Amino acid sequence: MDKGIIAGELSGDILGAGLIQALRARYPNALIEGIGGPKMLAAGFKSHYPLETLSVMGLVEVLRHYPRLKKCRDSLRDHFLQHPPDVFIGIDAPDFNLGLEYALKSAGITTIHYVSPSVWAWRQYRLRKIARACDLMLTLFPFEAAYYQRHQIPVQFVGHPLADDIPLQVDKLAARIHLGLPHQGILVALLPGSRRNEIRQLGSRFLQTARWLLARRSDLRFIMPLAHPHLKTLLTQQIAEIAPDLPLTLLDGQSREAMAAADVVLMASGTATLEAMLLKRPMVVAYRMAELTYWLAKWLVHIPYFSLPNLLAQEALVPEFLQHQVIPEKLGAACLHWLENPDQVALLQKRFTDLHHQLRRSASKEAADAVSKLKSVRNPVSSRNWVSKKL
């Protein structure tokens, strides 16, 4: 039972690796190919392009890279039409994957989309495209599944693999020992993102915030994990220009350990905020984007929150700062609030634990079960006839 899988970024690589491992328990000799990262490759995946090929975010940024992305998608479409998998699974990257899923489904290939696009927040018209493109939507969060059910689109809530991987209680001291950090003292983790654009938008502002905090709390120490080695030059340049004397430890990767070791986390919005929540760490969430992208999103997006902990809870559990609010005074004051109010941190951690239980469902196994149960009702061989007409 061969599978096609395309993951769009690091978070998709994690999901894809878990899914591949669960599928291999059922189909040990299956060919599983498409686009994936190091974790998927380690699970026995064949990648036709590097994972970074699809790591583009923002409306303006995607438009700039559109010709390259279209060429890649057309190539993968032709490959899967000539060598039809039993099931194709697009992991996240909806602007790339949904169009590919539509072409494959039209040719008789069963398609699944894993990780819901934010249709509940903006571009609700995509529901029609989703219904045409995929036979089943797999969601990570329960509120997403409820949304699809209301619109009568086949859906299954599988939970989140991170909630399975991360224990309900995390030992801060053990994390510090693992990283070779001092056992005592207050530690602030800085996570400005995993993309070059995010580092450009948030790296310098996070470093300025660290300086602001240190001027008020000389006992603070800082830690910053590098999501990719190729980001080191950009970050070290920012450190040299903005905070050369900052008591800062740079790490190659190990973002989870860095968050686990910290007393508070200042971070970019994204999947990492879910990880911080599961680690039960108080956080301050920020995001900036290209100015044109921001103004377009401001008119198109209508949700009260943008960080995952707040979206899951449907209330403001953690402070969020967007675009022009991302300044040291606001970010720093929010970090100090957590450091100086341990009772509120304890209440926050209790809420985080409740949400952790809600998402802890053996997600990779649930997703693999859904893939196995979804049998194609169309003849995949017809895709060969379809592609012969198109080429």
From TrEMBL:
InterPro entries: Glyco_trans_19. Keywords: Glycosyltransferase, Lipid A biosynthesis, Lipid biosynthesis, Lipid metabolism, Transferase. Pathway: Bacterial outer membrane biogenesis; LPS lipid A biosynthesis. GO terms for molecular function: lipid-A-disaccharide synthase activity. It holds the Pfam family LpxB. SUPFAM superfamilies: UDP-Glycosyltransferase/glycogen phosphorylase. It catalyses: a lipid X + a UDP-2-N,3-O-bis[(3R)-3-hydroxyacyl]-alpha-D-glucosamine = a lipid A disaccharide + UDP + H(+). Belongs to the LpxB family. PANTHER family: LIPID-A-DISACCHARIDE SYNTHASE, LIPID-A-DISACCHARIDE SYNTHASE, MITOCHONDRIAL-RELATED. Condensation of UDP-2,3-diacylglucosamine and 2,3-diacylglucosamine-1-phosphate to form lipid A disaccharide, a precursor of lipid A, a phosphorylated glycolipid that anchors the lipopolysaccharide to the outer membrane of the cell. NCBIfam families: lpxB. This is Lipid-A-disaccharide synthase. It comes from Candidatus Marithioploca araucensis. The gene is lpxB.
